[in-house]
Amino acid sequence: MIMKNRWHHKFCISILMLIVVFTVVSCSKTINTESDALKGYVKEHYSKKEVDIKMRDGVTLHTTIYAPKDTSKKYPIIMQRTPYSSKPYGANEFKEKIGPNIHMMQEGYIVVYQDVRGRWLSEGHYENMRAYLPNKTSEQDVDESSDTYDTIEWLVTNVENNNGNVGIWGISYPGYYSTYATVDAHPALKAASPQACIGDFFFDDFHHNGAYLLSYFRATSLFGTPRPNGDMPIDTAWYSLPKLPTEDQYQFFLDIGPLKNLDSYFEYETADTSRMAVEGQTDDFFWNELKEHPNYDQLWQSRGLIQHLKNVKSHVATMIVGGWFDAEDLYGPLQTYKNIEKYNKDNYNTIVVGPWDHGKWAKRAGRSTVGNYYFGDGISEFFQEQIETKFFNHFLKGSGDKNSGLPEAYVFDSGKKEWKQYDAWPPKGVTKRAMYLAKNQDLISELDVVEPITFVSDVTKPVPYSEDIKTVFTPRKYMTDDQRFAARRPDVLVFETDVLQEDLTLAGDILAKLKVATTGTAADWIVKIIDVHPAEQQTNEEMQDHLKMSNYHLMVRSEVMRGRFRNSFVHPEQFNPNEKTEVNITLQDVFHTIKKGHKLQVQVQSTWFPLIDLNPQTYVDNIFKAKKEDFKTQTHTVFTDSSIEFSVLE
Question: Is 642 exposed, middle or buried (0-12, 13-18, 19+ CB in 10 A)?
Fold first, then answer.
């Protein structure tokens, strides 16, 4: 009897283990199975039509329309305007997936893609972040707002079975065009979801607080190479990304030296180089713009969209989407949301921010991770079904009133790994709490004695942004990278609390109020906010082999300030050697709980290579034109009356 019970017990355990294994395997295959099942879905259920829509100035924009074959009812229009091509071209060539997500695709929408002015099969001249024209006096006064308006007018008039309601969405650059559509919007535009939307190239993508992002230099050709045949359409790529001779990105940029030595990577390789030469455009025009406009001058100011959001029309509901760990565009979503709130009090305007890198919410990945760090299962799928689809359905298919059932702020606590809903962002009840950078690596609540802490910033051995640097288009993984490698360097200052006895929830922006000095006349300042995990923390399966989650230093937020811009982005100024100087750095919002048993850490450094370019540490008018002899090793000082002001949710 005892033997039988033991056998029965072992049998039950074996069956249970098989069930668990089967469940895990099944879950891991869910996304692939779903993807396989959707192959051919668009072609089976949608018809496709390509048209060239004439704008008010006579330029035509190439537009692809996917309409449900079931014509027994009317559908709203959901559109995306893109500089990245509305491919595949041709009546018999179909995208595998259309619309913001598969739920909306299966429910039925008229889905429209358009090549923006000057790109691919659209006519006209392309301008990188075309300036908004608030006072249009003639049909020749065009911008992305007027192009969207004219497109919507044509669509609601000419596309059969549309219900008169239009929505727009897009991620990254298409997100920027989605924001643009809300300004002076067409009356039929009822809903817009700018996602990871660019807001201003001086503060996201190509710069952070005026510091040039070397990580983006390979993208310059993508955004800045004019078409070889001028304003005429082209259906193949006319640009090429610079090819680096090594996989060691850190060494490549270190060896090449000053930024001006990168000029050779932006010479045209087009069929019509003779015309380029005649017009004096012998190298990449956007690279030249970057070089010739190192400060926040009229060029950058005119292209920023954030300052024009007071003109967002009240009939357009907006849902801004971003990722807490988006290395490219977090400034844009946060500033877009906040400025619509600021200038348009009566508008329906919401924000969604999850534990994603750039655009990850549009994928159906099952396990949600950024780099080494795991946040949970089905987070993107939840967003697509319960937030994004619900938003568009309400405003394009439903009543369209302000009672959408969604909160003002749907935000993910990346420390507790859970969604929260608030009726404002930052949440009501947030207070400011200052902590001081003290001696002995302490991060303390009360100002102690004021003392200097010095370190040497060696321009020949700059601090890397990650210990895992490869030749990439733009890095993403580093946003959650383990920062132990940096904490162990002598040119990185570390300050941390004791082990927390209760949870500490950071919700909102962070302001670093540094008091610094340098032996030179120029310097960058980088501040990183770190969640130090306890020794007993379990390691997840995404972790790199050489790392463990035990004592993992999770970077929660980080930012750079190019010191010359500490008082003005328009008028740079040098440091006076050895003079104590205030440098304030606003870090983008976070929503992260440093849990009980963890420690809060702050790291301060002066190089972040090759994420950003190397500061010569000797003041020059234009770092893009700095010479090799301008780069000098200097000694920097951080004073212990420096503080970090956190937004804390009590």
Answer: buried
Q: Listing from the earlier edge strand, what are the strands of the sheet with 493-496?
A: 493-496, 599-605, 524-532, 553-562
Nearest Cα to 609, choosing from 514, 475, 434? 475
Q: Average the pLDDT over each of 25-29, 170-174, 306-310, 341-345 and give the range with the smallest value.
A: 25-29
Cα–Cα distance measured from residue 199 to residue 287, given in angstroms and rounded to the nearest whole number: 19
DSSP designation for 360:
G
Pick from 199, 149, 145, 147: nearest CA to 172 = 199
> Average of pLDDT values for 321-350?
97
pLDDT tier, 474 (very low <50, low <70, confident <90, very high otherwise): confident
Q: For residue 34, name the pLDDT band (cuts at 50, 70, 90).
A: low
Query: Cα(149)–Cα(141) distance, rounded to whole angstroms?
Result: 13
- What's the DSSP call for residue 540? P
pLDDT one-digit tens code per residue, 196-252: 999 999 999 899 999 999 988 888 888 888 888 888 999 999 988 888 888 889 999
- Three-state DSSP at 492 gives coil
Query: How far is 411 from 352, CA to CA, in rounded Å?
Result: 6
Indicate if the pLDDT at residue 32 is higher than 70. Answer: no
Output the pTM of the full model.
Answer: 0.92
For residue 534, what are the contacts with CB-CB under 8 A and spacing of at least 6? 499, 550, 551, 597, 598
With CA atoms as reference, report the closest residue to 522 among 611, 583, 465. 583
**CA dist., res. 295 & res. 211, Å (int):** 10
Q: Is 358 left (phi over 0), alpha (psi -120 to 50) or beta?
A: beta
Task: Check if the beta carbon of residue 634 is closer than 8 Å to that of residue 523.
Answer: yes
Report the phi/psi class of residue 144: left, alpha or beta, with left for phi > 0 and alpha for psi in -120 to 50.
Answer: alpha
Please, which residues bridge with residue 373 across strands? 370
54: β partners: 60
Residue 425 sits at φ, ψ, to 5 deg, of: -135, 130
| Helix pair angle (331-343, 173-182), 10° resolution | 10
Judge if the upstream peptide bond of residue 88 is cis by omega within 30 degrees of 0: yes
Give the 3-state secondary structure percentages of the chain, helix then strand then coil, rounded to 5.
25, 30, 45
Give whole-number Cα distances, 2 to 7, 9, 16, 99, in Å: 9, 10, 21, 62
Spatial distance between the Cα atoms of 639 and 102, rounded to a whole number of angstroms: 54
The rounded distance, in Å, linking the Cα atoms of 508 and 646 is: 8
Dihedral of the alpha carbons of 27, 379, 479, 595, in degrees to the nearest 10: -100
End-to-end Cα spacing for the chain: 60
- Both tokens assigned to 572: 């740079």
Residue 277 has pLDDT above 50, yes or no: no
A 10 A CB-CB count for 595 gives 17
- Mapped onto helix, strand or coil, the DSSP state of residue 25 is helix
> CA nearest 287: which of 270, 263, 305, 311?
263
Cβ burial, residue 75 (10 Å; 0-12/13-18/19+): buried
DSSP 124-193: S---TTPPP-SS--STT---HHHHHHHHHHHHHHHSTTEEEEEEEEEESHHHHHHHHHHBT--TTEEEEE
